[in-house]
Structures are given as C-alpha cells and as structure tokens.
Amino acid sequence: HAFIQMFEMGIIYRKTRLVNWSHALNTAISDIEVDNKELPGRTVKAVKGHDPKKKYEFGTLTSFAYKIADDQGNPTDEEIVVATTRLETMLGDTGVAIHPDDERYKHLHGKFVVHPFCDRTIPIVLD
Can you name the residues that pair with 83 across neighbouring β-strands? Predict the structure, then answer.
C-alpha cells in the first residue's frame, strides 16, 4: 500500500531503464552506491561475496547475429550483428535498435528480426 501512495504522490515512478542490481544485497542500488571501474580490456577477477576461488570475466564484447525476418516472419539469409557485454540479456531482447540516419540500415526501417532462441520476431527500432 505504501508504494501505491508514494506513486500517487509522485514521490516514486515507474520507468523502463537499467538499474544497478546487487546480488549480495538482492536488491537494486543507486548510482552513488556503485564503485565504477574502468577496465583496460578483458579482465578476469574474483567478485566480492562470491566463491573466492572462482573468477569471472569482465571487459569483453560478444557479437552475435539476428536473422532479418521476411514478411511472414521467417528468417532470411540477411542478418544484423549486435554486440553486448552481457550476452545472457539477449534472451529478454524485445527489439534491436539502429540509428535512423545510418545508410547501412535504412532498408531495415519497419522490419523485424527472428530471435535465435525464442519462437518470435522482434522489431527493429529507430533510436
């Protein structure tokens, strides 16, 4: 009930955006509670609160391709390559963003891609 009251008063709001999630605290934390670190590239290190013997990889980009869908939603031979530092988030992708003025992608305005693991198409959005 408290969240509803705060929402109605304009104290809190709902928005679709990235948050800083703490696995140790099992909650979202503010930007001022995060210690950002610049990495020179691929870095393997232990993570506080995890098994000290286990190391995790940071600072790498993974590229993968979405097939462009035809008018019936079937994959074509054409594809668009995207890159991410968090490959696991692609399972929840709801769109692929392209710059509206980029000549390489003008022919994709209003088109869809086929999700490689889920039986669905997702829109190509102009951003």
Answer: 63
